[in-house]
Amino acid sequence: MRFDGKTVLLSGAAGGFGSRAAEVFSERGALLVLSDLDGDALQAVAEAMPGDVVWLAGDVRDPASHDALVDLALSKYGRLDIAVNNAGIVCPMQRIPETDPALARQVIDVDLMGVFYALQAQLPVMSARFAEEGTPAAIVNIASAAGLVGSPFLGIYAAAKHGVIGLTRSAAAEYGRKGVRINAVCPSFANTAMLTDYLDAAPAGREAAETALTRGIPMGRIGQVDEVVQAILFAAHADNSFMTGETLSVDGGLAAV
Ligand SMILES: NC(=O)c1ccc[n+]([C@@H]2O[C@H](COP(=O)([O-])OP(=O)(O)OC[C@H]3O[C@@H](n4cnc5c(N)ncnc54)[C@H](O)[C@@H]3O)[C@@H](O)[C@H]2O)c1
User: Whose CA is nearest to atom 7 of ligand 1?
Assistant: First the structure.
């Protein structure tokens, strides 16, 4: 899958999936617009890219940050072909009554409202270009297996990710005739800081925590970053031209059972 000359906007670009996806898009010819809350880490990722890149630190909870990224794509490259709405956080694993409401609000604001604001900024620009030139565009929202099935001890995260899938399907229906495909990638536990930080802090130790997490996964292991990145590329690629409103599970079979 090549992305020569395609403009790709990626949020959460300093993180596990984001930084690797940026690298692979860049190796395959894409022109990058990268963003993350962590400006220093973002700069380090951006400076390591083999191809064209611009970056802007920002918080996905701020609607203006999404407008600024779309403006940056237009001013630097003249268009926006692909957006990967990937930034996200998780909260500590706790039952719903024990979950701190302030933390729960933060998860909704970052994981759900962050995608909502991103779509608000991206869809008008992408659909306007399709109306003018007939050039289609694609958006990939990073949801989770927790967006498809209930997730004990991650209730508010599951609610936010179910919401992302609701937004994805609704946007796909709204923009099916306007040249924008919108799909969601749904990883389960994969090998990024989001998971490894949790495993390293587990009171029972990393090995026991990993065994407990993977017990319900038919393939019996956590996922690798590249396994998720492949699905992001597939969802984004122009050859994948009739798939929209879809959820791609990359979860070793977790959501299938
Ligand atoms: N790793 C997993 O097991 C897993 C599983 C399912 C879904 N996901 C989802 O994948 C996406 C990427 O996660 P990851 O595993 O690469 O985690 P990560 O922690 O490595 O990366 C997340 C990135 O998002 C950035 N970020 C956090 N809050 C932000 C904000 N308010 N504004 C802008 N950027 C912000 C962080 O700085 C970080 O660079 C997330 O949406 C996450 O929910 C991850």
Answer: 144
